[in-house]
Design a protein that fits this description.
MetI-like fold; 2 domains; 82% helix
C-alpha cells in the first residue's frame, strides 16, 4: 500500500512539473528574448502606452458593469429555482465557448446599421463600431459569465438561514442583502471581477470585428507582429504581461482573507 502511495505522489509531482513548465516556459522565453533597450523603447512608445491603458480601462469597465448588472441576477440564480433555470445557466455560459470572431459577428448583427437596433443607435448619435463603447460591449459580453458564475457560487455559500433571521427581524430583502449576504460573499464577487477583467483584457478576435481602432494592446501586438515580426511585437507583449500580472496579483491579495495573508 505504501508503495502505491509513493508512486501516486511521484505521478502528481511529475504532472505538476509538466503543467508548470508548460505554462511558464513560453513566458520565460518571451521575457528573456526581449532586451532592455527594446523594453525601454517600448515603455516610451506613446502608442503602446495608450493601447495598454485602453485595455486596462475597458476591461475594468467590463468588470464594473458586470458587477452592477450581474450581481442581482447571480443572486436570483443562487436562491431561486424556476422552470428553465438550467437553460438560462447554459445561455450565460455560451460566451465562454463561442469562438471569438463569432462573438464579434453576433454583436455586429445587432448593432450594425442593417439591424433596427443599430439604426436607432445611429440616429441618436451612439457609435458602437470603431469606438471605445464597442470595445466595452465586447469585453463585457465575454467577461460577464465569469463574474456571474463566481458570484453565484459565493451566494450559495451563504446560509439562507442567516437571511431568514434578518427577514424575521423586519429587514427588507434589499437590506438583508446589503447587511448579511454581501459582507459574507464579497470575496467571491471580487474574484468574479478579477476573472471577468482578466478574460476581457485578453480578448482579441471579437474586438477586431467590432473595433480594430482604437487599438487595445492585443490588437496592437498582432498588428506589429504581422507588420514587423516577432522581435518588434515581443516587447509590447512583455509589457502587457507585466501590467496584467501586477493588477492580477494586487486584486488577488485583496481577495484573500486577512487571517491568511502573510
Amino acid at each position: 500500500m505504501s508503495n502505491r502511495r509513493e508512486f501516486f505522489t511521484i505521478v502528481t509531482v511529475v504532472c505538476g512539473v509538466i503543467v508548470m513548465g508548460f505554462i511558464t516556459l513560453p513566458l520565460i522565453k518571451m521575457f528573456m528574448s526581449s532586451s532592455w533597450s527594446s523594453l525601454s523603447a517600448t515603455v516610451k512608445d506613446k502608442d503602446v502606452l495608450k493601447s495598454i491603458w485602453l485595455s486596462v480601462y475597458t476591461a475594468s469597465l467590463a468588470g464594473i458593469i458586470s458587477f452592477f448588472v450581474g450581481t442581482p441576477f447571480a443572486y436570483l440564480l443562487a436562491r431561486k429555482d424556476f422552470p428553465g433555470k438550467r437553460i438560462v445557466e447554459n445561455i450565460i455560459d455560451l460566451p465562454m465557448v463561442i469562438p471569438h470572431p463569432v462573438v464579434g459577428i453576433a454583436i455586429l448583427s445587432v448593432v450594425g446599421r442593417n439591424y433596427w437596433f443599430g439604426q436607432i443607435l445611429s440616429r441618436i448619435g451612439v457609435r458602437v463600431m470603431g469606438s471605445v463603447l464597442g470595445i466595452v460591449v465586447v469585453l463585457t459580453f465575454v467577461g460577464m459569465p465569469f463574474y456571474i458564475n463566481a458570484a453565484k457560487d459565493g451566494f450559495r455559500g451563504v446560509s439562507s438561514r442567516l437571511e431568514g433571521v434578518s427577514r424575521s427581524l423586519g429587514a427588507s430583502l434589499f437590506s438583508t442583502f446589503l447587511r448579511v449576504t454581501f459582507p459574507l460573499a464579497w470575496r467571491s464577487m471580487l474574484v468574479g471581477i478579477i476573472m471577468c477583467s482578466a478574460r476581457a483584457i485578453s480578448e482579441f478576435g471579437a474586438v477586431v470585428v467590432i473595433a480594430y481602432h482604437p487599438m487595445i494592446a492585443p490588437v496592437l501586438i498582432y498588428e506589429r507582429f504581422e507588420a514587423y515580426g516577432l522581435s518588434y511585437s515581443q516587447p509590447v507583449a512583455v509589457l502587457l504581461t507585466l501590467v496584467c500580472l501586477t493588477l492580477f496579483l494586487v486584486l488577488r491579495i485583496l481577495s484573500v482573507p486577512k487571517d491568511l495573508k502573510i
